[in-house]
Specification:
The chain is α/β, with parallel strands linked by helices and 367 residues long. It is 23% helix and 26% strand. The protein contains ten helices and 18 strands. The strands form four sheets. Strands 3, 5, 6, 9, 10, 17 and 18 form a seven-stranded mixed sheet that branches. Strand 14, helix 7 and strand 15 form a beta-alpha-beta unit. Helix 3 packs across helix 9. The longest helix has 14 residues. It is globular and about 60 Å long.
């Protein structure tokens, strides 16, 4: 490794599942070394995402049945550490979280072209480079693999993409997790220009990304958001916004949309199937209002509906996202940036949900 790369770095260590006290900012963490097929990235920015908080609090455990906010500060006592991760397996602690990463390649491992050193890059959070090409066996940055809440991180070279745009580091650092999740949802459900798409949680990171990306595909977008954020959601691509407390059937009518992109779940979930047309598609990658829902199977089969879960991303999803960026079809809104050491404040502000757009962490920069 080049001599300019230090031996230690600043990073936030997640020391276990639980509250904010499990986040430990340190400046003596060893800088990782890239293994075969990997690159070392000096991190410039990393966005704050729901999944970082959900992983910290253990919300992915099947023992947890409540919404994501009720345990977001202190964690869930009922969480089982054996399945409280994306992959349904115990996490290794300490773990450096951060599902987003924007930065520059500063070193490469065996088998990687040294000409990549110096590239400005973003990292695909769904790390396909470790799966050997096997579908649905990806690892995730900041979950199964140390992520972007540090000055340096490693990632497979095949999951690290050069980017050519005039965006700030904070803007690029806001993109990988939320926008690729949204693009994965649209890809999985086959959204096209002929669709009318209902997006729940449309003022959040993934929801607002889905609004922009569905509009970029030419679809008509109806968004669900709080009244205070409705204008902002319209400005970012929604043709119509209905209030999050409204009954979607009363607001839109039965069988009025062809696709539902849902990040909310919860008790209102059955009404989302009522607004789907016959042959409609439903896709989800989150359940902030609660993961346990009631399904009438007659609605599913009599209307010939298709339901899609979306976590793993096919190989072309992230490349498509990069094309959107480089061709100027989308652009994130960064609400606020924070020094990495202020991660607790950033997560507290994130949970307050008073912001629109993304909150982004900036690690110390070595000059």
């Amino acid at each position: 490794m080049p001599s300019t790369i230090p031996d230690t770095m600043a990073a936030v260590l997640l020391t276990g599942h639980g509250g904010m006290d499990k986040l430990e900012y340190r400046e003596d963490v060893p800088v990782p070394r890239p293994g075969p097929g990997e690159v070392l990235i000096r991190v410039a920015a990393a966005g704050v995402n729901n999944t970082d908080i959900n992983t910290r609090i253990g919300w992915y455990s099947k023992n947890v049945t409540g919404d994501t906010s009720s345990g977001a500060a202190g964690g869930y006592q009922e969480a089982d550490t054996d399945d409280a991760s994306w992959g349904g397996k115990p996490l290794e602690f300490p773990r450096i979280q951060g599902a987003d990463c924007c930065g520059r390649i500063v070193a490469v491992g065996d088998g990687v072209d040294e000409g990549r050193i110096g590239e400005r890059v973003i990292v695909r959070g769904c790390l396909l480079g470790y799966s050997g090409g096997r579908p649905f066996e990806s690892q995730w940055l900041g979950s199964e693999k140390d992520g972007g809440f540090a000055q340096y991180t490693t990632a497979p070279a095949v999951d690290t993409f050069a980017i050519d745009c005039d965006w700030s580091d904070a803007e690029l650092g806001a993109v990988p997790c939320s926008y690729s999740t949204a693009e994965g949802l649209l890809h999985r459900s086959g959204v096209g220009a002929d669709d009318r798409v209902l997006v729940t949680g449309a003022s959040g990171g993934v929801g607002s990304s889905a609004v922009q990306l569905a509009r970029a595909r030419g679809a008509e977008v109806v968004a669900v958001a709080g009244a205070s954020k409705a204008d902002w959601v319209r400005e970012h691509g929604a043709g119509r916004v209905i209030d999050r407390d409204a009954d979607p059937v009363e607001a839109l009518g039965e069988e009025s949309v062809s696709v539902v992109i849902d990040l909310v779940g919860g008790s209102g979930w059955p009404r989302l199937l009522e607004v789907l047309r016959r042959g409609g598609r439903y896709a989800t990658s989150g359940a902030i209002a609660g993961p346990i829902v009631e399904l009438d199977l007659r609605t599913l089969y009599l209307k010939d509906l298709s339901l899609f879960g979306s976590t793993h991303q096919d190989d072309g999803v992230f490349q498509g996202l990069i094309q959107h960026i480089e061709q100027g079809r989308i652009r994130p809104v960064v609400s606020q940036t924070y020094p990495l050491r202020d991660i607790v404040q950033a997560q507290e502000d994130f949970l307050a949900k008073r912001h629109t757009g993304k909150l982004v962490l900036i690690p110390p920069q070595d000059d």
